[in-house]
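ERR on first pass: missing label on line 2. Operator R.T. fixed the label and resubmitted. Corrected input:
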Amino acid sequence: MEQQLQAVSGAAAQQSPEQQADAEAGQAYFDRAMAADSRIEPRDWMPDAYRRTLVRQISQHAHSEIIGMQPEANWITRAPSLKRKAILMAKVQDEAGHGLYLYSAAETLGTSRDEMMGQLVAGKARYSSIFNYPTVTWADMGAIGWMVDGAAICNQVPLCRASFGPYGRAMVRVCKEESFHQRQGFEILLELANGTPAQKQMAQDAVNRWYAPSLMMFGPPDDDSPNSKQSMAWNIKRFSNDELRSRFVGMMAEQVKVLGLSLPDAEIRFNEETKKWEHGALDWDEFKEVLAGRGPCNAQRMERRREAHEGGAWVREAATAYAAKMAAKNEVAA
Amino acid sequence: MSESLGWPLWEVFVRSSRGLSHVHAGSLHAPDAAMALRNARDLYTRRNEGVSIWVVPADAIAASDPDSKGSFFESPQGKDYRHATYYVKSEGVKHL
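pass 2 clean. output:
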């Protein structure tokens, strides 16, 4: 069914008059749904560009969750207590789950799981630039939870209302679980900030290093974000990159006071005229470099993902062989 | 690198507590029903979200065609009498 509908929305040159009429009716239905801020479901007609945009965005989001397991898994064996170790393992397991929810959502658009996984392992797919930074101290677990997951929540809460049903539903599930991530990160930092001077310094150092990369998670400035406008017209994106970034800075500026730490940006201020939070300039050249694969950990992250994929191959093959054997046995019995 | 295994897609339904019906939670890939159930448990019930899980091969689900919205679902127009709110004369009568 989905394949048939995709065929309908194919190139106009190959369309029969009936197909063209279907596509026109589909477009009219789609436009009405957008105007009414209604939802699009997998088997509805949708423009090719809408489908492509969603596949790209949702699969990149899924890849980010999967790669995002690595910086934190780095500290599981060295967590300072059994409780912290259990918490970190639960969090990393959640990230894997989030990746799977998102792959499922992307699949409903007609792209197979194997294809998406293949693109990631082949280094052809993008994922959030943030996960290419190293986690050098335990305090980084706190900074990631508080700032990186905090930024992710700011970004994801509006996505719960994305026009594509399966994406929105996956986001609802993700957001419910993500709030634990941010709180546990905040607690790690709070404990360090109230510890010895060296521990407090470690917490401050982590906040200093993760501040700018988390702000860049919202994507390039609005005047340099070519796809944003279309995504907003399609009700996928609800707020612009700069709008979300400004909100995030405001939250951080307040919360950092509770930690007794500071943000490494002297230009943070609330603009009374625009009623928006402002921050200092960000290094967008660095952002582009990391996105292009030249960040501090890109090569390591990809290598580790490949190892995991290849190392797990025998398990997948064994499960497939067992299923085939049992199916054959049942057939004989029947 | 391993070849594509093409594991079938399963739809997952979770009963959140006894007395409630199973509700669609999402989908996953697995080679067989036993693995699908185990994966569903790990993926959709990490926080006590369920007391029972169903997994159904996605292929086995028959669905209505979204395009036939007009004809498949009978028009409710002019059939207000199927709802209790249609009957107003009994307003004010107790326990009715």
